[in-house]
Amino acid sequence: MSCVILLGFFTEGNILKKQALVVALIILGLLLSIVHAHAENITPVVKSVMIEGNRKIDSASIGARLATKTGDALSMDSVRDDIRALYGIGYFDNIKVDIEEYDGGVRLHYAVTEKPSIMKVEFAGNKEVSTEKLQEQISVSAGAMADGKLIDDNTSRIVAHYEKEGFWDIEVFPILNLISKDAAVLTYNIKEGDKIKVREITIEGNSGIETGAIRNVMQTETAGIFSYFTSSGRYVGSVMRDDLERIKDLYHNNGYISVQVHRSEPDVSEDRKSMAITIKINEGAQYSIGKVSVSGAVKMPSSEIEALLKTKSGQLFKRDVLRSDVIAVTDYYADKGYAFTDVVPDISLREKEKLVDLVMLIDEKSLVRVGRVNILGNVSTRDKVIRRELRLDEGDTYIPKLLRRSYQRINNLNFFEAVELVPNPKPTEGLMDLTIKVKERATGSLNMGGGYSSVDGLMATVDVTEGNLFGRGQTLKVSSEVSHKGNSYSVSFTEPWLMDKPLSLTTKVYDTRHEDLYYNRHAKGLGLTMGKQLSEYVRGSVGYSFERATISNISDSASNEIKAQDGTKDTSEISASLSRDTRDNYLNPREGSKYSIYTTLAGLGGDNYFTRTVIDSSWHWPLFTESALSFGTRIGFAKGIESRELPLYERFYVGGMNSVRGHKYGAAGPLDKDGGKLGGNKELVFNVEYIFPLAAESRLYGVLFFDSGSALREDQDFIGPDLREGVGAGFRWISPIGPLRLEWARNVDPRAGEDVYMWEFTFGTFF
């Protein structure tokens, strides 16, 4: 309005000068600019979010994906992010957003178009591979959304399967046929091409590395006379691509840092049944290591880091050694609490000297601490039973080796089928959250059955065990065993963490009757043992037990030594033990060791006075895929005190499943003139085992073993002709109800009346 009036003044010859009009217009423009700028600074508020067009996924689920909520200030950047988030769900073909004035603010109106559901998955063109086999390869099924990424992923799966089967020019085309607005049929059209064998492989351009060495790292091989019956000699595209990388790695590990490897177009036969492959290599120059240095080490001594490096000046450049150096330095920092440290090798070439200078660049970052520790999957087991096995707590410095140790301890509880410890890094906060996922197994069992033991013959057993009583980690066991040679009953209870401290308490009562060849024995007793965790791997215990044993019905043909044991005698004894156990798994160890010493002193009252000491050790080394080599040794000493006789039932009896296999229980030791087992006052046993997987997923393993040892009289030497030997093989199955061993053994030096071969089996813990 002001502009109109001023214009009128000017056209009617008003006395205002032209300059005054210009000034007025400038002032008006400034006012309008101020008003406009003020209006732009007022951001509308989102008063409502409306979603329509969805039928298969509810509005609440869609709304949960939106960052923009009712009451937020409108942000176009946030709206764009929300659209991307909705597309990321994979459920929508199209998303449209309208911004409407609403209730003094705006309303966001999301109109979505859902993808159709796949009602059926079909295959066309497949002749060599059955539809059933193809269905096993794919993850898409009826009811899934027709998501392009999912469809393409399954296309790749089908191609990969055909390539694995040896097909050459396989092509797969997915077609989506709409049968309604909401439903479609997915058809994979397949052009199988030909199944092709490799008739020849030619290597060209290699001079620094022999052709045989190159062929040895390849998995692709030429077809042979048995290829018709086996899968050998097939061409598989993915394997061929991996072979080219393996050849590069071979050269990189021999100093050829700039090698180039490629495969020329294959020469396919006219019948398209075979092909010749030519691999061309441009080796380049061979380089050695020049200068090696470390940069960026401030919190840790450079000298310690340099000592970790296997890459040394003067050696040939080897990429796998360099990779191991990066891992070694990274682990070094992680074990000091700097888990987010970056280690990057910087290499520079000196082409004239054919040298590679290496600088290990280190970005140390800050100390990392444990954030939240979340436990998932435990229904019966209490959180504290799991937490007390952790070697990392909230607020502690995060050290990976302690995380690995925590996994071992939780796994060795034997309460869980699966244990997974997942670190969740938060680099900006300097924290590492931990998520512990467990899948519980049944820890209570009622077993009633029968069987045959190579020691006790026919037997019947009843065993009630709860290994995780009330979810507290306590163990209660009630068991009985009846065989034609005797019976036994026992009740035991173990509290592993007394008063929530690393103290264990075990109580046991038992009643045992056994018929030996020359006498009967009946024993009743009770015991109390307390143990303590002395350090991470060391544990000690002390205990007291009382036993009343009766030897009766002694055969007239028994030796005088056995007849002297006739009658009832009490044994009151104290015991102590010390062990160091670093095994990764108690039931099936692959690495680590165990050392233990157990000693007993009897004579605090009662009739028997003796000392008994056993030193036991085992070592385990991982070998090939899930296989392991184990070596064990046991040495024992026992002696009566004050010239008293050592009781028969406290002597050492060697032979059988847990000592020297191929020999009956007690047969690898002193015998009387009629072959009766007298036992020894010392023992020595060696065991060597190679354990390998037969069906690792079912925890079934094979074993090869060699045993040597014997129980000995006091006048016999530990090393000498008195040691007995056995060799053999067997199976071990860590079954849902416990470990099972079935083993065949050969007596290496059978004596008169001894069996040459023996089959033995047992349930229980492996030694």
Quick recap:
The chain is an alpha+beta fold. It folds into seven domains: 2-40, no CATH class; 46-114, membrane protein fhac (Ubiquitin-like (UB roll), Roll); 117-191, Ubiquitin-like (UB roll) (Roll); 197-282, membrane protein fhac (Ubiquitin-like (UB roll)), CATH 3.10.20.310; 288-363, Roll (Ubiquitin-like (UB roll)), CATH 3.10.20; 369-440, Roll (Ubiquitin-like (UB roll)), CATH 3.10.20; 585-763, membrane protein fhac: a member of the omp85/tpsb transporter family (Porin, Beta Barrel), CATH 2.40.160.50.
Largest sheet: 16 strands, antiparallel
CATH architecture of the largest domain: Beta Barrel
Number of domains: 7
According to CATH, the homologous superfamily of the largest domain is: membrane protein fhac: a member of the omp85/tpsb transporter family
Strands across the major sheet, in which order? 17-18-19-20-21-22-23-24-25-26-27-28-29-30-31-32
- What Rg is obtained from the alpha carbons, in whole angstroms? 39 Å
Report the top-level CATH class of the largest domain: Mainly Beta
Beta strand count: 32
Distance between the termini: 103 Å
CATH topology of the largest domain: Porin
Q: How much helicity do the residues have?
A: 10-25%
Question: Strand share of the residues?
Answer: 35-45%
Q: Averaging pLDDT over every residue, what do you get?
A: 85
Classification by helices and strands: alpha+beta
Query: Low-confidence parts, pLDDT < 50 over ≥5 residues?
Result: 1-27, 30-40, 449-454
Give the overall shape: globular
Number of helices: 13
